[in-house]
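ok so i was messing around last nite and threw this chain in just to see what happens. nothing serious, just curious
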Amino acid sequence: MHEILLIAKREFLEQVRGKAFKVTTILIPVIFGAIIGISVFASKNSGQGKHIVIAANDAPLASRIREKLLADKDAHMSVDVLAPAAESDRQQLISKIDQKQLDGFLWLTTDANATNPNATFVGRSSGDFATESRLSDAVDHAIVQQRLSSHGIPTDDIDSLTKGVKIETEQVKNGKEVGSSTLGSFFAAYIMAFLLTFTVMMYGMNVGRSVIQEKTSRIFEVMLSTVKPTDMLAGKLIGIGAVGLSQLAIWAAAALLFSSTALAASLMSGGLKIQISAIEIILFAVYFLLGYALYSTLFAGLAATCESEQELQQYAPLAAVPVWLSFSMITFIVSNPNSFWSVAISLFPPCAPIAMFLRIASQFPPLWQIALSIVLLLLSVVVVVWFASRIYRIGILMYGKRATVPEMLRWLRYS
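result:
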């Protein structure tokens, strides 16, 4: 045990004192925050400042659509009306788009009662979904208004009847209604899933790189004269795992300090409310430790069979497939936390650290499912450690030859 702690201390101090630890500790939260801020800003300002023409055979309907579009202060659109419009006008509008005088036009034809509208948006960009969404809402709103007006309903009554309703969201917890935010829950799950994915993979790869570096420098031959291979592997896992926990603790403390600032209060004053409970923090640490133990041991065993860091990097994406699979299902899991597939993937050990925590952030699952996922993950860690430690014992001393599957099976028998 003394040798394990000495190796763990060495690995911990070597990682913490390095420039990479200091740089990533500071830059990763900044970069991640910048990515979220840019994505929010881009989504809010997408489709702004467009110059479009509404070409229709119904001038009043076209004017209603124009009023609806101009009422959207976030769009900052320039909207012209061409009504009534003929086929020759369509060709002229196409020419203006081609000459970059217009961003697009809405070609709208209706019958006398506006019961069978036919709308086509012709634009310069095929991916301008923001403008298309605004046009679709404006057309629907204008047609409803026109139909109500045709039935003799006053304009003031039409405005009140078609006014939208803002829906507040609440969640039932322990038989009580508590305030919640759909967007906040998604961001909380996304941030936690990202941190789990990034830290588990980063520190798992660090274990693998450490094995490769010591193997290629032949330092193992000296160390193995006094330390057992399994003790070396255990020391690496504990030391580098402690580095990961330290970095997460620093980020958590910084987030706690930031949450008490005026800037955080202004950001959370709208509909975005991110709430993380104490039990979620505890489970986050549990799943981080288990996920780290699983993947770092896997990378250590994989690194023992490789001859260079480049070779390890080639195999790393294959080992990381379960992590990215669970991360890619974030929207489905958060929206359907108790579906069959969400439960199944959260109980599958390689995906459990990410998938189960996504479920916890969205809707706290039954305790037996959390307990079962932790037990299955523990059993998987034991199996992987048993397998990797035996590969590690012999693989770290193999040079100049790539390990094949039959050779690794012989290593298991030898060890």
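not much to say yet. The chain has two domains: 48-162, 178-414.
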